[in-house]
């Protein structure tokens, strides 16, 4: 249990970081929307391995939610989050108010091209612009040496990496594997929305991904059939709708072709809850 | 006459700057598209006043030109530019190739809101997104302490300042007043396009601005009439078309209202050449 500094303003945060920076310390940033679970903890652990100090940010970013999405009910539990950050040994929590990130008159946004127009981009058209803008702001406010993202949001990681490269942001992006419950369900703050029956069904997403990964390894020619079947199975099991279930080029997110590095990604609805997941194939 | 370092690549440029930075020297960046004239020289002079080393960049940025604009014929004269930079005592010329700024796969752009949707934004819809993106990239590649822009491109200065503030870019923006020929014509690389007759007419732009500034001071109630008359006078004198001639809030560029800080801005065509100019009212 260590001391956790809490900074609500950019200037306060920067003053603390300046001390570490003047000492030549390496700083890692873990950007989150709070409601921290073991997936986040794994990111912070990774930060501790590669940097001297870890900063976690908690900011439920309104610009990445669409008008009919779950901004209002997104879980907020800062007291529990702070206790977890203390336990894990995070050094500083940056939990800015809206005004610190989007002051009066704010009107800049960062847009990416092709990589944001597939998968999540189709179903959440404003999502990646919101993510890219807030991540750029956090990276420029904190100016960490490293920033750490979870592979659970695979497309987001690729979008952020592309933006960092395109804009010459001076930061190294590290990623950590998805953390799962024993039954395979990927940890997500949104799992809290699931009722008991939905929670029971949820791990079938991972099973569907596994089945496709197996097919890809053994007989890629039969892939389309297996993907179609996996969709039908999910719907039959009780998923309300499947936004996408696709095999993609792991970096560009374009439809997979023989020889490409592959990533299998899914987004599907259980009742009112939208879950996403993905796996690699190596 | 001093030594001018020429860097074509980001890495080469950064290596030179690191030496100065490690010595604690202050660095100013003057971003240009080349075809340097005394307006640019004034920016570099300002940089020399406020910083220890001045970096000038020359990059004719294709993304800020529309499909029917003058990208192909924009004047390129690097040898003359380099001689001028030597004479003035600029320390480093960063003249990157296209690939240094827009490598394969580049797909990020920066968009601003209201401030980019008036005046130039109406007539050159991709212009400010191109400017914001390339300026952000130059600022992030060079990471200067100061960056210097000319008031000749007044709306551009406001767009860049807004972006720098919105994205928390750690740089101070300085501006230098427009440099004019003795007859009032604002210096511009595009003045090279003018034939003798057009060159003779061109200073009337500045006269129109002056007339409106006078009206604003003496009788703002009669402003609309005077602006309308100034437009007619320009057309009668031989200007082919007036894109805009407007009194605006000097920072937001919204239509001017009594009590606002004012800026008077004009864009008009002489033959195939589009000229812009602006003045304040203090």
Explain what you see.
2 copies of one chain form a homodimer. Chain A is built from 10 helices and 10 strands. Chain A has about 280 residues and is an alpha/beta fold. Chain A has 2 domains: about 170 residues, Rossmann fold (3-Layer(aba) Sandwich), CATH 3.40.50; about 90 residues, Pantoate--beta-alanine Ligase, Chain: A,domain 2 (2-Layer Sandwich). In chain A, the strands form 2 sheets. A 6-stranded parallel sheet of chain A has the order 1-4-3-2-6-7, with helices on both faces. A 3-stranded antiparallel sheet of chain A has the order 8-9-10, covered by helices on one side. In chain A, strand 9 and strand 10 form a beta hairpin. In chain A, helix 6 packs across helix 7 and helix 9 packs antiparallel against helix 10. The interface between A and B is medium-sized, with 26 and 26 residues. Chains A, B: InterPro entries: Cyt_trans-like, Pantoate_ligase, Pantoate_ligase_C, Rossmann-like_a/b/a_fold.
Q: How would you describe this structure in keywords?
A:
282 residues; Rossmann fold; three-stranded antiparallel beta sheet; alpha/beta; 10 strands; Pantoate--beta-alanine Ligase, Chain: A,domain 2; homodimer; 39% helix; 2 domains; six-stranded parallel beta sheet
Q: List segments of chain A where confidence is low: pLDDT < 50 over at least 5 consecutive residues.
A: none
Q: What is the tally of helical segments of chain A?
A: 10
- Backbone CA Rg of chain A: 19 Å
What is the makeup of the main sheet of chain A? 6 strands, parallel
What is the first-to-last residue Cα distance of chain A?
37 Å
CATH topological fold name of the largest domain in chain A: Rossmann fold
Mean pLDDT of chain A: 97
The overall number of domains of chain A is 2
Query: Which superfamily, in CATH terms, is the homologous superfamily of the largest domain in chain A?
Result: HUPs
Largest interchain contact: A-B, 26 and 26 residues
Gross CATH architecture of the largest domain in chain A: 3-Layer(aba) Sandwich
Strand tally of chain A is 10
Regarding quaternary structure, how should these chains be classified? homodimer
Give the overall shape of chain A: globular
The strands making up the biggest β-sheet of chain A line up spatially as: 1-4-3-2-6-7
């Amino acid at each position: 249990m260590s001391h956790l500094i809490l900074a609500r303003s950019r200037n306060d945060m920067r003053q603390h970081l300046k001390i570490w920076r003047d000492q030549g310390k390496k700083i890692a940033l873990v950007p989150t929307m709070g409601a921290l679970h073991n997936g986040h903890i794994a990111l912070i652990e990774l930060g501790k391995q590669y940097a001297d100090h870890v900063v976690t940010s908690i900011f439920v970013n309104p610009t990445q939610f669409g008008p009919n999405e779950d901004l209002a009910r997104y879980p907020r539990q800062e007291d529990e989050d702070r206790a977890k950050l203390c336990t894990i040994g995070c050094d500083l929590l940056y939990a800015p108010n809206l005004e610190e990130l989007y002051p009066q008159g704010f009107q800049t946004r960062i847009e990416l091209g092709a990589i944001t127009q597939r998968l999540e981009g189709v179903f959440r058209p404003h999502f990646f612009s919101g993510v890219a803008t807030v991540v750029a702001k956090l990276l420029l406010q904190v100016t960490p040496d490293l920033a750490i993202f979870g592979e659970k949001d695979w497309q987001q990681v690729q979008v952020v990496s592309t933006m960092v490269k395109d804009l010459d942001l001076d930061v190294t992006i590290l990623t950590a594997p998805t953390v799962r419950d024993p039954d395979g369900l990927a940890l997500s703050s949104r799992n809290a929305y699931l009722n008991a029956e939905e929670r029971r069904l949820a791990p079938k997403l991972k099973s569907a991904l596994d089945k496709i990964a197996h097919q890809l390894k053994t007989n890629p020619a039969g892939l389309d059939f297996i993907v179609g079947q996996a969709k039908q199975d999910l719907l039959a099991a009780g998923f309300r709708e499947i936004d996408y279930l696709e095999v993609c080029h792991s970096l560009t997110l374009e439809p997979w072709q023989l020889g490409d590095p592959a990533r299998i990604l899914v987004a599907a609805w259980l009742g009112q809850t939208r879950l996403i997941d993905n796996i690699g194939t190596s």
